[in-house]
Amino acid sequence: MNRPSLPRALFSALLAAAAAAQPAVALPPLRADLVDEATLAKISGKYFGAQMLVGLRVDVVSSLNTPQQGAAMASGSLLVQRDGAGFAVSVDARSHAEAGSGGALPTNSSASGADAVQVRGIGQIAQIAGDGNRLSNLTSIGFVDQAQANTDASGFNGQSRSAASAGTMQARVTFLDGGVQVGIEGPGASIQQRLAAGAQGGIAQLGRIAGNGMDAGNRLQLQIVTAAMTPQLSRQLGLQQALDSLRALPR
After folding, report:
1. Cβ contacts of residue 242 below 8 Å, gap of 6+?
2. What total of structural domains would you count in the chain?
3. What is the side-by-side strand order in the sheet with 202-210?
4. pLDDT of residue 22
5. pLDDT in tens, 137-162
6. Looking at the predicted structure, is the pLDDT value of residue 18 above 90?
7. What CA–CA distance (Å, rounded) separates 227 from 217?
């Protein structure tokens, strides 16, 4: 089994979250062996706990509200779980748009360039020109059990794409091969989220606003689904560790 390298930014974020969750107790001395990037990139084979990863869930929501009562929202959820020798996939895609009364852009205001940014790891970009605007980009990554991952999954509509439009307001969400794209367009605003798999993949949350009094947001939640360690596996790992410790005995 090949293990792709984890982007440094994501790795640092996971380490920081794990450190923050630990209680303030004395820890034993830490021993570390430094390994260069070239060696890590070529590591392959079996490793402890590999069979505990049983699925993945992705939830995305993007929204935009204008002071003229225009509104657009797109959301999507994808749940992939091991099912015997294969995988079971559940998907949900929804979108909504309301035209409002339209509205003009402020004079000499513009924001551009975010759409062309390429991201590896996690990237969050906000470009705002105008007054009284609010924009949020939120990403969370966590580990959950199968029961938590299946919360509300029975209500998934089975749609892999959805689009809605009303006047100048547009919303769309599409699950592609190995990723998802969400886009909200309005007068003077473009709100996007992209998640792509593979070596060049990453998570990108982009917001571009050139107007006044707009409220927009991107939210993405990535959940890695794990199964509890069985007593049999626990005994097996304990036996392996005991045998490994015998190697340290003098001969």
Report:
1. none
2. 1
3. 121-129, 202-210, 189-196, 179-186, 169-176, 161-166
4. 42
5. 999 988 888 889 999 999 999 999 99
6. no
7. 33
Q: Closest Cα partner for 136 from 218, 54, 36, 205?
A: 218
Strands 121-129 and 202-210 turn out to be: parallel
CA angle 216, 98, 207 (to 5 degrees): 20
CA distances for 31 relative to 25, 27, 34, angstroms: 18, 12, 10
Q: Are 208 and 193 in contact (CB under 8 A)?
A: no
Residue 2 CA to residue 23 CA, distance in Å, equals 34
Residue 1 lies in a domain: no
Percent of the chain clearing pLDDT 90 (strictly above): 37
Is 162 part of any domain?
yes
- Show contacts of 40-49: CB within 8 Å, 24+ apart: 40/5, 41/5, 43/3, 44/1, 44/2, 44/3, 45/1, 46/1, 47/1, 47/3, 48/237, 49/229
Domain limits at 88?
Answer: 52-103+133-185+213-226
Q: Which of 31, 38, 42, 32 is nearest to 4 (CA)?
A: 42
State the number of CA atoms in the 13 A half-sphere of 72 facing the CB.
30
113: left (phi over 0), alpha (psi -120 to 50) or beta: left
Quick one: tokens of 91?
């998907």
Query: Has residue 10 been placed in a domain?
Result: no
Residue 248, in any domain of the structure: no
Alpha carbon distance 88, 86 (integer Å): 7
DSSP 50: G
Tell the residue number behind the tokens 């995305």, with chain if given.
60
Per the model's pLDDT, the better-predicted residue between 27 and 41 turns out to be: 41
Among the listed residues 79, 89, 119, 18, the one whose alpha carbon sits nearest the alpha carbon of residue 222: 79
